[in-house]
Amino acid sequence: MQAKQKRSSEKRTKLVTAGTELFHTLGYGGASLADVAKHANVPVGGIFYHFRTKADLADAVMEKHHETYAEQLAMIESQTNDPRQRLRLFWDGAAQLADNRAELGCPVLALAEDMACDAARPADAQPTRQRVMRHTIDWLAKQYGELGLNESAAQTAAASLFAAMQGAFAVGHVLGDASLIRDIFQNKRNEQEKAGYL
User: Fold this and answer.
1) 167 alpha carbon, distance to own chain's centre
2) Per-residue pLDDT tens for 173-186?
3) Residue 181 is part of which domain span?
4) What is the CATH number of the domain that holds 6?
5) SS3 track for 139-195
6) Which tens digit of pLDDT belongs to each residue from 60-79?
7) Are residue 68 and residue 12 in the same domain, yes or no?
8) How many domains, in total, are found in the chain?
9) For residue 90, which of 136, 159, 57 has the smallest C-alpha distance?
10) pLDDT reported for residue 125
């Protein structure tokens, strides 16, 4: 029984990994469940044992994104107690994604938008698409709070920083220009340094 459960868990992991990759490279609308099953080397019929619909798979993929980014933020926290240094590490990590985001866009933003437009999704499942962004913004707000901003100002500063990052990714992706992403990031970094946050 345990061996069977392990195999089932491994297949699910493969399907989520394949879904994560294909939703990013082909888009949510461009990747079918059959595509995902083939990419994961799982029989097409096997995918329905784990995910009844593509929307269900999207939930699992978004949860994987959440786990990945939460781990990255936790790693930043483990490296330093200084909120300014944490913000620098966050910004540096985002800047390293310029080439990938110029080519493919942000996987979380794209999937979140597609999930919101999927008529097959029940309304009460929609908060799933917000999880990564909400967690990241709250984490950023925590850093600004430790720098002395009150809760409201910290949330605004965090949302502004996150929006600048996502805006740079979106514009850079549309124009296919990684250097533009880097330029926007540098400009925002200069602003943050002058304000004393980096």
Assistant:
1) 14
2) 999 999 999 999 99
3) 55-195
4) 1.10.10.60
5) HHHHHHHHCCCCHHHHHHHHHHHHHHHHHHHHHHHHHCCHHHHHHHHHHHHHHHHHC
6) 999 999 999 999 999 999 99
7) no
8) 2
9) 136
10) 65
